[in-house]
UniProtKB/TrEMBL annotation, chain A:
This is Geranylgeranyl transferase type-2 subunit alpha. The gene is RABGGTA. GO terms for cellular component: Rab-protein geranylgeranyltransferase complex. The lineage of its organism: Eukaryota, Metazoa, Chordata, Craniata, Vertebrata. Residues 251-348 form the Rab geranylgeranyltransferase alpha subunit insert-domain domain. GO terms for molecular function: Rab geranylgeranyltransferase activity; zinc ion binding. Residues 1-20, 194-219 are annotated as: Disordered.
UniProtKB/TrEMBL annotation, chain B:
The gene is RABGGTB. Catalyzes the transfer of a geranylgeranyl moiety from geranylgeranyl diphosphate to both cysteines of proteins with the C-terminal sequence -XXCC, -XCXC and -CCXX. Catalyzes the transfer of a geranylgeranyl moiety from geranylgeranyl diphosphate to both cysteines of Rab proteins with the C-terminal sequence -XXCC, -XCXC and -CCXX, such as RAB1A, RAB3A, RAB5A and RAB7A. Belongs to the protein prenyltransferase subunit beta family. InterPro entries: PGGT1B-like, Prenyltrans, Ptb1, Terpenoid_cyclase/PrenylTrfase. Keywords: Metal-binding, Phosphoprotein, Prenyltransferase, Repeat, Transferase, Zinc. Binds 1 zinc ion per subunit. It is an enzyme of class 2 (transferase). Its EC number is 2.5.1.60. Gene3D superfamilies: 1.50.10.20. The keyword Transferase applies. The keyword Transmembrane helix does not apply. This is Geranylgeranyl transferase type-2 subunit beta.
């Protein structure tokens, strides 16, 4: 069904073709029916092998016929001696080879080959590996063959470094071979569990020297190579190499509020609030609490309410521990006398917080990579892969120091690769939010202000659990997503001059009092519905929104939001 | 040794408006060519073929033109003793066709036409120790089959009958360095497989396990200058991959990362103005498979002449609403 070009033909040619197809159809149907009836009668003979062979050579996707052949072969195993079985299976392998020559992308043929190889009394894995070599030399992207190769490698214990050398050879003959880069990404962690290979797209050919360590790599930029070619595969791989550091899974913040008698938990990575296995211990006593998510459409931020009266007395001190049983980790939090709330979280300026894209321990390596990329960028100022890589390297090295350059590069990226400008806008928004969080943490405040930064999306809201004032005015936001319900301490929201039409995330925010939404795209009362779940809402500015044109808007809103005393329309 | 960007050029006279009536006629006529050689050759996937045809007809509001009774009878006669359903009569049951059959019966609101409990037993029986699913009793393992299994059970409201945690664990072992997924652990990422795996994680409520920014980047990089999307780097664009990539982006909440207008232009150019139907690329032969994915793609892009399609199950949203199934999507 793929790649069949439509050809115009005359009526006479059509008629000839029709007759030929009719003839072929008769032969095909006769063979098919013969196979089916023999199988129904339980006949497992040579004729059946021949009939199925005839059909499968032209139609290898006819899965039932492979099944029939397997039944026959399994039967023959029980009646023939080992040498005969070996011969039968070898014949099957050569039949399969001819099938694969005609149709190298048939799931059925490859699966059958694996099945036969596994049953062969004396398997010849070296031959299978060389079959893969030949097949990949014809099409180095055939993923069926790559998968078969991985099976052969596993079954016959081919050493990892030998396979790595194989990918070197393939990349040497075709630098843009995504399949080979992919294979490397699965082999390298086996060979060097800790230290990744140095980045590669700036090198002309893969190393011929022994596997490198982080200290021994070179940063030769091959302008010639990169100017001529579009090293797409390599750049994907490069981004991965730079970013192999994974963040540890842990509880990043525990917050407790005396007024609401509520505990909220944030994690370093998204985890499912319901299934995560959290245990709350209060003053040494495990509590029977029900963990739920802050929003029905955002399940990764658990909160729970304590039984009424448990911590409401301000003259009492309490010690809480949240245990994440699944990960054998926990976090303590003390609520002192006279305090209405308390929290415990990761050290504020944790360098690792937002650098999960790139691993930080290799700073000197990254520094010289950045130099190489900058040199390349001078030669090729509009190479988008290079620009994006520079941005990522700058973020890993000094996100605040490089903020201006980063913004400039994003601007260029949006121009040279306009099809993906929304991706770049979102990525840029993410980085600006990360920088703002870093600045907020350095200043040790609970105010998050990011106005006039062309934000198109909100992220990392789980990091804003403690924020009381947020200012998002004059950006390009279209929604306050469900994750916004994470902001359990939020009192004031400023979001004037955006394109917001969706307030889904303003959901059960217990402390929210003031909401400024001047000049947005809120068009109906239904859009405002989520606000009705915020019990303390007093002040609401909706000036410049289409919704203000609704008939009886004042009285409708008074009904929907009875707590609001100060309404600006 | 250098590589050019592989792509197609859309000719100025390529179709640029949507010929829904022609497509409906094409699909309605397709099933009547039962004595055709090519039609007979594709018997091994007949059940999926019917699903493609019926779904695209339903999306175009033309389902009543198809022969409901005949199709339901056909499905009944394809259910086997083991509970599994085959592509056609005389063929062996397989998860691929079991899902197609259940999807068809959902379109027709008649799942009770088959023995549902036995279907559930069949699916359950194909789950392996490691959580993966074999496509049938011959043991081929593929994340496509993990998707078929959970999609079938979700449509039947019986997800609790399998070990979902194990199934999730297996699919996650197929996640790659680029955020995508392959057929088995270690297999290269591929848009069709990514569709199956993100769909699987949606149905099992585990989408938070996806690195949506990384995967979304890989997916939006599938868009070529012609506007069409390919299924892997350095491959040609194709209407069916356009659907798989687009649906995956929709599932992980990143559909705005591609240029929708350009993709629409590409999909429309793959229509055959004479015969109706969509081809994989402009100028190629049409088939029901690409016709479904062309129309479904246009639906996801917001074309209002077509019913809204669900990105996870590739079925009309109104059908899923009737069943009460709403798979998760990231925002
Ligand atoms: Zn296709």
């Amino acid at each position: 069904q793929h790649g069949r070009v439509k050809i115009k033909s005359t009526a006479q040619q059509e008629e000839e073709k029709r007759k030929e197809r009719e003839k072929k159809l008769k032969i095909y149907v006769a063979a098919r029916d013969a196979c089916f009836s023999k199988r129904k009668e339980g006949i497992w003979d040579d004729e059946a092998l021949q009939l199925t062979q005839q059909l499968l050579s032209s139609n290898p996707d006819f899965a039932t016929l492979w099944n029939y052949r397997r039944e026959i072969l399994m039967h023959l195993e029980t009646v023939k001696d080992e040498d005969e079985v070996q011969k039968i299976y070898e014949a099957e392998l050569s039949f399969l080879e001819s099938c694969l020559k005609v149709n190298p992308k048939s799931y059925g043929s490859w699966h059958h080959r694996g099945w036969v190889s596994a049953r062969l009394p004396r398997p010849d894995w070296a031959r299978e590996l060389s079959l893969c070599d030949r097949c990949l030399s014809l099409d180095d992207r055939n993923f069926h063959c790559w998968d078969y190769r991985r099976m052969v490698v596993k079954m016959s214990g081919v050493p990892v470094d030998q396979e790595l050398a194989f990918t070197d050879r393939l990349i040497g003959s075709n630098f843009s071979n995504y399949s080979s880069w992919h294979y490397r990404s699965t082999l390298l962690p086996l060979l060097h569990p800790e230290s990744p290979e140095p980045p590669s797209p700036c090198r002309k050919s893969p190393q011929t020297s022994p596997p490198p360590s982080p200290q021994t790599h070179s940063h030769r930029v091959c302008e010639e190579q990169l100017l001529k070619e579009y090293e797409l595969s390599a750049w994907f791989y490069y981004r991965w190499l730079l970013g192999r550091a994974e963040r540890e899974e842990m509880i990043s913040c525990v917050y407790v509020s005396r007024d609401e008698e509520r505990v909220a938990v944030a994690f370093s990575r998204p985890v499912n609030a319901q299934s995560v296995g959290l245990l709350l211990v209060l003053d040494g006593q495990p509590q029977r609490v029900e963990w739920r998510s802050v929003h029905p459409r955002f399940k990764h931020s658990p909160i729970c309410d304590l039984p009424p009266g448990t911590i409401s007395d301000i003259t009492n001190e309490h010690n809480l521990t949240v245990h994440w049983t699944e990960k054998h980790t926990h976090r303590d939090c003390a609520l002192y006398t006279g305090r209405t709330e308390s929290y415990c979280r990761d050290s504020a300026t944790d360098q690792e917080l937002f650098r999960s894209e790139l691993s930080v321990e290799k700073t000197s390596v990254l520094q010289s990579e950045l130099q190489s990329c900058n040199q390349l960028q001078e030669l090729e100022p509009l190479n988008k892969w290079c620009l994006l890589t520079i941005i990522l390297l700058m973020r890993a090295l000094d996100p605040l120091g490089y903020e201006k350059e980063t913004l400039d590069h994003f601007q260029t990226l949006k121009e040279v690769d306009s099809m993906r400008s929304a991706y770049y806008s979102d990525l840029c928004s993410k980085f600006m939010i990360e920088n703002t969080i870093l600045k907020m943490e350095y200043a040790e405040v609970r105010v998050f202000s990011i106005s006039d930064k062309n934000l198109t999306t909100l992220c990392h809201l789980d990091q804003l659990l403690l924020v009381t004032h947020i200012s998002l005015s004059s950006n390009q936001l279209q929604q306050l997503p469900p994750q916004f319900a994470m902001l359990q301490c939020l009192e004031v929201l400023e979001a004037d001059n955006n394109c917001i039409g969706n307030l889904e995330g303003l959901y059960h925010l217990p402390k929210l009092e003031e909401v400024y939404l001047k000049n947005n795209k809120i068009s109906s009362l239904a859009d405002l519905q989520p606000l009705a779940s915020c019990p303390k809402l007093k002040r609401l500015d909706l000036r410049g929104n289409p919704v203000t044109q609704t008939a009886n808007i004042g009285s409708e809103l008074a009904e929907l939001l009875p707590s609001v005393t100060d309404l600006l329309l | 040794m250098g590589t050019q960007v592989k792509d197609v050029i859309i000719k100025p006279d390529a179709p640029s408006s949507l010929f829904l009536d022609k497509h409906a006629d094409y699909i309605a006529a397709y099933g009547s060519k039962k004595d055709d050689y090519e039609y007979t050759l594709s018997e091994y996937l007949r059940m999926s073929g019917i699903y493609w045809g019926l779904t695209v007809m339903d999306l175009m509001g033309q389902l009543p033109r198809m022969n409901r009774e005949e199709i339901i009878d056909f499905i009944k006669s394809c259910q086997h003793e083991c509970g599994g359903i085959s592509a056609s009569i005389g063929h062996d049951p397989h998860l691929l066709y079991t899902l197609s059959a259940v999807q068809i019966l959902c379109l027709y609101d008649s799942v009770d036409a088959i023995d549902v409990d036995k279907v559930v037993e069949y699916v359950k029986g194909l789950q392996q120790e490691d959580g993966s699913f074999a496509g049938d009793k011959w043991g081929e393992i593929d994340t496509r089959f993990s998707f078929c299994a959970v999609a079938t059970l979700a449509l039947l409201g019986k997800m609790d009958k399998i070990n979902v945690d194990k199934a999730v664990e297996f699919v996650l072992t197929c996640m790659n360095f680029d955020g995508g997924f392959g057929c088995r652990p270690g297999s290269e990422s591929h848009a069709g497989q990514i569709y199956c795996c993100t769909g699987f994680l949606s149905l099992t409520g585990q989408l938070h396990q996806v690195n949506a920014d990384l995967l979304g980047w890989w997916l939006c990089e599938r868009q070529l200058p012609s506007g069409g999307l390919n299924g892997r780097p350095e491959k040609l664009p194709d209407v069916c991959y356009s659907w798989w990539v687009l649906a995956s982006l929709k599932i992980i909440g990143r559909i705005h990362w591609i240029d929708k207008a350009k993709l629409r232009t590409f999909i429309l150019a793959c229509q055959d103005e004479e015969t109706g139907g969509f081809a994989d690329r402009p100028g190629d032969m049409v088939d029901p498979f690409h016709t479904l994915f062309g129309v479904a793609g246009l639906s996801l892009l917001g074309d209002e002449q077509i019913k809204p399609v669900n990105p996870v199950l590739c079925m009309p949203e109104d059908v899923l609403q009737r069943i009460g199934l709403q798979p998760d999507l990231l925002s």
